């Protein structure tokens, strides 16, 4: 109910000059609200005349007494009663009264009931249903009166105006007959046309919204159904895997039961495929559901389509699809947890078997289990039985302790659940109380808005009558002032002819001075930008002498941003600098070269270790290789001159490091980074941080270079 009240209140605020009886869709959509407030109007029918008559009383003298007010109220009540009595027997009079008085139809329907159809009323029903708002009539009348205040000059004086147009405030008198105020019929037709255009636009938007909702619903339902089926299939696959795994763990004893483990392995592969398919289907379903919710949200935000009846069912479909997806994912998650428990159980069993075997081997080091004909002595058997007895006793104590702990945790969880239920009940009571208060506030606001609309319509009608009288007075004043205006226009035309040349020269000089000032300002900003960028680039190369490690660029970027505040290019380039470079900072070029020496040394020592890692022997061999191999390697001259094609797959770690070292010595970080990315295996992991720092440094350096080029281009343009 609160949402309905809010929607109706927003519609009334969108149409301040709206009246019931216009036959629009907005009134039909609020039929229920009108039926409630028609009773309010009928209950206050004795108060409405006094409200209408309060405006003329406020303009009378302040010495009016209570007797005059009582007489006026009595006359108003008698007049309203006579009008209602006559309107009951004369449908034509009732139709005219309803069309002339704001909210008249609601007032008459609440007291006399619906009007009976008649020949005259049926002809006038279309016109009455589309009466224009009083505010639009007021605007039309003002527009026509303003047009009449500025009539065109005579044809004999148009040659003089062609030299230099006269000032806008003064116009020539009209040579045509006096214009007439548009008739109410013309205003009514114009209002009907505007209402039809608005209605057609609303219908088009609603049709497009319904089409989008149908497509989005069909897509969401299809993908949701596929996702639910996939989740259920994944759940069954996981349950089957758990069943096979428990069977293999409990029943498999020797090599003859290997088929049980094979079945468990096949079930695991099926489970993985089903889970992957379920994840893909779920992602598609959530994407389709988000698309449907986006269409619903756009329809609700649009004032023309927020009352569309298709939004409710679409939102219901979205909620159902969301619940189905969540339920299916919840069931699948439960199955995943059961699968994890089974896997953990298997790992624990294997770990326990291995641990028990190690204990037996430590207890009986000379016994060789698993060999044919191996027998244990009586002492060994007693020792083995005693150890098993102690192990069972320890496990029994641990189980008892675990049971007590779990019981305490269950009691604690139960207390927490009870406390959460109490908090939930308290919050539910608070929400109910808040909703009741909001409901009352919405009711009061709606009633106040309805009363304000009634008062606004009455005031607009009175204002329109005043403006009509004011227009007549302006017509008479304009008739007497036409002769004076004609003489003034002739004299001003001659004066403006001489003034125009001086104004044109002055405007040309001002334009040149402004252009020159703007060019100087841009040039000054470009020079400041170049200097700021030079400082930024200096920081990237050498860094600050006051600190070590990463150099934050925020204090260096700020002068660049302040140097060109009006340029749209500078913020775009500065935005390309990573946030990490601004806050944490980047290593200068000198520090990167020094850091590469350590990275190079470590990479040489682990050159033989690939992506899969290696044993201690491989690490030792790699270290020995770094001691005996010739490094750095000499690079081919053809490769340096770009006369030979290279194949990075044929390079080893020392070849790549030699090329990186060469280009670092030649001050080319970008080329060194290209070669460093060719590292593989453990050397790539060692150089990963250095590569990332070099990339961060190059991104900031690229932005500084682009800004310096922009500043240099601007300075060159100023010089030209």
UniProtKB/TrEMBL annotation:
InterPro entries, per database record: MIC60
Q: Which residues form the signal peptide?
A: none
Q: In its keyword annotation, does this UniProt entry include Secreted? A: no
Judging by the UniProt lineage, the source's domain of life is Eukaryota
Q: Where in the cell is it found?
A: Mitochondrion inner membrane
Q: Which GO terms describe its cellular component?
A: mitochondrial inner membrane
Q: Where is the composition biased (Polar residues)?
A: 45-57, 118-128
Q: Name one Pfam family in it.
A: Mitofilin
List each coiled-coil range. 199-226, 410-471
Question: Biased-composition ranges for Pro residues?
Answer: 164-176
Q: How does it sit in the membrane?
A: Single-pass membrane protein
Spans annotated as Disordered: 45-66, 115-185
The UniProt keyword set, sorted, is: Coiled coil, Membrane, Mitochondrion, Mitochondrion inner membrane, Transmembrane, Transmembrane helix
Q: Which family does it belong to?
A: Belongs to the MICOS complex subunit Mic60 family.
Q: What does this protein do?
A: Component of the MICOS complex, a large protein complex of the mitochondrial inner membrane that plays crucial roles in the maintenance of crista junctions, inner membrane architecture, and formation of contact sites to the outer membrane.
What PANTHER family does the database record attribute to this sequence? Answer: MICOS COMPLEX SUBUNIT MIC60 (PTHR15415:SF7), MITOFILIN (PTHR15415)
What does the record note on quaternary structure? Component of the mitochondrial contact site and cristae organizing system (MICOS) complex.
Name this polypeptide is given:
MICOS complex subunit MIC60
The organism encoding this protein is: Ixodes scapularis (Black-legged tick)
């Amino acid at each position: 109910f609160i949402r309905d009240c809010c929607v109706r209140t927003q519609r009334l605020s969108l149409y301040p000059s709206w009246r019931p009886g216009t036959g629009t869709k907005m009134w039909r959509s609020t039929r229920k609200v009108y039926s409630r407030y028609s009773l309010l109007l009928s209950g206050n029918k004795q108060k409405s005349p006094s409200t209408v008559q309060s405006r003329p009383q406020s303009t009378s003298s302040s010495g009016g007494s209570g007797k005059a007010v009582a007489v006026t109220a009595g006359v108003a009540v008698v007049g309203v009663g006579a009008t209602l009595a006559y309107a009951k027997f004369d449908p034509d009079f009732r139709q005219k009264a309803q069309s002339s008085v704001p909210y008249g139809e609601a007032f008459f329907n609440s007291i006399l009931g619906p009007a009976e159809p008649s020949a005259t009323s049926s002809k006038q029903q279309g016109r009455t249903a589309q009466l224009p708002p009083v505010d639009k009539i007021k605007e039309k009348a003002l527009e026509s009166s303003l047009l009449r205040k500025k009539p065109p000059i005579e044809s004999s004086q148009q040659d003089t105006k062609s030299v230099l147009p006269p000032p806008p405030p003064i116009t020539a008198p009209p040579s045509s007959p006096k214009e007439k105020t548009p008739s109410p019929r013309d205003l009514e037709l114009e209002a009907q046309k505007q209402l039809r255009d608005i209605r057609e636009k609303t219908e088009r938007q609603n049709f497009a919204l319904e089409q989008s909702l149908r497509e989005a619903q069909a897509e969401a339902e299809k993908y949701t159904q596929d996702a639910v089926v996939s989740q259920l299939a994944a759940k069954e696959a996981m349950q089957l895997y758990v069943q096979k795994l428990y069977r293999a763990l409990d029943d498999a004893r020797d090599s003859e039961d290997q088929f049980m483990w094979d079945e468990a392995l096949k079930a695991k592969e099926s489970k993985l495929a089903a889970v992957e398919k379920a994840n893909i289907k779920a992602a598609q379903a959530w994407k389709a559901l988000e698309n449907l919710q986006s269409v619903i949200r756009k329809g609700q935000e649009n004032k023309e389509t927020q009352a569309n009846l298709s939004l409710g069912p679409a939102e219901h479909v979205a909620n159902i699809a969301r619940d189905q997806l969540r339920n299916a994912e919840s069931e699948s998650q439960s199955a995943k947890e059961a699968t994890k428990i089974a896997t953990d159980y298997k790992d624990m069993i294997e770990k326990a078997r291995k641990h028990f075997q190690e204990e037996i081997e430590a207890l009986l080091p000379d016994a060789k289990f698993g060999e044919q004909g191996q027998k244990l002595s009586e002492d060994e058997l007693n020792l083995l039985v005693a150890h098993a007895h102690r192990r069972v006793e320890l496990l029994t104590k641990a189980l008892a302790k675990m049971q007590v702990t779990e019981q305490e945790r269950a009691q604690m969880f139960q207390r927490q659940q009870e406390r959460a239920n109490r908090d939930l009940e308290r919050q539910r009571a608070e929400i109910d109380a808040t909703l009741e208060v909001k409901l009352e506030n919405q009711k009061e606001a709606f009633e106040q808005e309805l009363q304000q609309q009634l008062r606004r319509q009455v005031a607009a009608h009175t204002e329109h009558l005043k403006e009509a009288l004011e227009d007549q007075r302006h017509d008479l004043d304009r008739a007497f002032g036409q002769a004076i205006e004609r003489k003034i226009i002739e004299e001003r035309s001659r004066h403006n002819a001489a003034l125009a040349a001086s104004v044109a020269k002055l405007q040309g000089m001002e334009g040149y001075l402004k252009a020159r000032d703007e060019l100087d300002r841009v040039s000054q900003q470009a020079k400041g930008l170049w200097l700021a960028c030079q400082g930024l680039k200096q920081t990237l190369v050498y860094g600050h002498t006051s600190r070590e490690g990463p150099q934050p660029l925020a204090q260096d970027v700020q002068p660049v941003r302040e140097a060109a505040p009006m340029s749209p290019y500078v913020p775009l380039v500065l935005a390309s600098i990573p946030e990490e470079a601004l806050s944490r900072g980047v290593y200068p070029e000198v520090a990167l070269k020094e850091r590469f020496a350590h990275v190079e040394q470590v990479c040489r020592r682990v050159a033989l270790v690939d992506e899969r890692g290696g044993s201690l022997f491989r690490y030792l061999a790699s270290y020995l290789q770094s001691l005996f191999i010739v490094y750095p390697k000499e690079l081919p001259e053809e490769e340096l001159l770009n006369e030979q094609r290279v194949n990075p797959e044929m390079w080893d770690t020392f070849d790549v490091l030699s090329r990186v070292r060469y280009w670092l010595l030649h001050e080319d970080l970008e080329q060194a980074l290209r070669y460093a990315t060719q590292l593989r295996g453990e050397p790539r992991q060692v150089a990963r941080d250095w590569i990332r720092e070099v990339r961060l440094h190059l991104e900031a350096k690229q932005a500084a270079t682009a800004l310096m080029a922009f500043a240099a281009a601007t300075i060159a343009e100023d010089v030209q």
